[in-house]
Specification:
The chain is built from 9 helices and 17 strands. It has 390 residues and is α+β, with helices and mostly antiparallel strands. Helix 2 (170-182) crosses helix 8 (352-368) and helix 3 (188-196) packs across helix 8 (352-368).
């Protein structure tokens, strides 16, 4: 019986190059109108009880080649639980996954997928809860709604948004965890957060790229996290409508949720290097980071991106643009595709459940810094008034 590999479904991505018995050569398909690629997701059938070798042969030219060493693919029998493919290796630009499926149909992916169908379930179920308001902020290029959920009635304006890069599916698993916590009527942290803050949550910033099986871009090849300085309706309406909504509300605290292919750790990136950088903002960012590290063994501050020098921030990115535009504290949360090597899990690696636990810890950290956040917001508003009066 021949092996059958398919990816013609929500978020699917792979191309069969050659099949030789139980060995198959594959290639990841580039994002539409872009050279980015690294995300894969496909179904394998006809392999029950057979030792199969799946070779992805174009990894060397992928977006992040350093993401392949020490990486292990994920496999699911039911598209619910995803486990690591232990016999995964990388050499000479080829990722090889060897497995003996226990049943005829199995699913294989770069990370546990978060489909648009699951996204719609998340939005619908959350919007139906008491105290939650739903709003479509606009349309994507493919005509999908830009879903936004509002929770809480407090004066502090908090924006949580994820999956600007659609292949970073752990970001929406994080969102699922955050929404579950924020809407929990029995959680005392959530009760205080709803009282002190108004949360506006965009679970998926890039629905088109998510459905198309892209790694990093939208329907016309735009990297949305390089569009925040000058978004347009023609190229990046997803960013344009969200940024317009932020202009309406203002922002006190913002978190942009991502995944990182190469670094085996969870970390934050901030807004150092923006033109208006000040100690008030930096103090809050540092306080949040320290608090989160104390609350979660899955978070650390030693590994991360290089910090830009003064005046050298990339202002096309959301975190830097929001910190400059609103004077708020903003940050990018990065989670690993591999695992947190400081606290490894050999069966699951970094996983959907751990992403959700980290979301809960992030909200606990936000609760812990509320007094300082309120103080800083008052100082900023006072400074604005004095500037206007002058």
């Amino acid at each position: 019986m021949s092996l059958i590999i398919s990816s013609a479904f929500d978020a699917g991505n792979i191309r069969v190059v050659r099949e030789d018995g139980d060995s198959v050569d594959l290639e990841i398909v580039k994002d539409h109108m872009s050279d980015f690629y690294q995300w894969f997701y496909f179904r394998l059938s006809g392999a029950a009880g057979r030792e199969v070798a799946l070779r992805i042969t174009n990894c060397a030219a992928s977006a992040y080649p350093n993401g392949w060493p020490d990486y292990k693919g994920v496999m699911s029998l039911d598209r619910d639980q995803w486990v690591r493919i232990q016999d995964t290796s990388y050499a000479d630009g080829v990722l090889t996954m060897k497995l003996t499926p226990p049943q005829d149909v199995v699913w294989i992916a770069y990370f546990a997928p978060y489909s648009m169908e699951r996204h719609h379930d998340l939005v619908t179920q959350t919007a139906a809860l008491e105290g939650v308001e739903y709003r479509s902020l606009g349309k994507s290029l493919d005509g999908q709604d830009m879903d936004c959920l509002t929770i809480g009635r407090g004066p502090l304006r908090v924006w949580l948004y994820a999956r600007q890069h659609p292949g970073e599916s752990m970001a929406e698993w994080w969102m699922e965890g955050a929404l579950e916590k924020l809407t929990d009527e029995d959680d005392p942290i959530a009760r205080v957060l709803r009282k002190e803050c108004t949360f506006r949550v965009v679970p998926n910033m890039n629905p088109d790229g998510s459905r198309r099986g892209h790694l990093r871009t939208n329907a016309v090849g735009a990297n949305l996290n390089r569009e925040w300085h000058a978004p347009t309706a023609e190229r990046s309406p997803e960013v344009l409508c969200v940024r317009n909504a932020m202009d309406e509300t203002g922002v006190d605290f913002a978190m942009d949720v991502h995944g990182d292919e190469a670094i085996p750790a969870n970390f934050l990136a901030g807004f150092e290097g923006i033109p208006s950088h000040n100690q008030r903002q930096q103090r809050l960012f540092d306080l949040f980071s320290e608090t989160l590290e104390n609350l979660s063994p899955d978070f650390q501050r030693e590994q991360g991106y290089e910090i830009p020098k003064a005046g050298e921030a990339n202002m096309s990115m959301s975190t830097t643009q929001l910190a400059e535009r609103y004077g708020c504290v903003s940050m990018t949360l990065e989670m690993p595709f591999k695992d947190n090597f400081n606290l490894p899990d050999p069966v699951f690696g970094w996983s959907p459940q751990r992403s959700k636990f980290l979301a809960s810890a992030c909200l606990d950290a936000l609760h812990a810094i509320l007094p300082e956040l309120k103080k800083a917001s008052a100082e900023r508003d006072s400074a604005k008034r004095e500037k206007v009066e002058a």
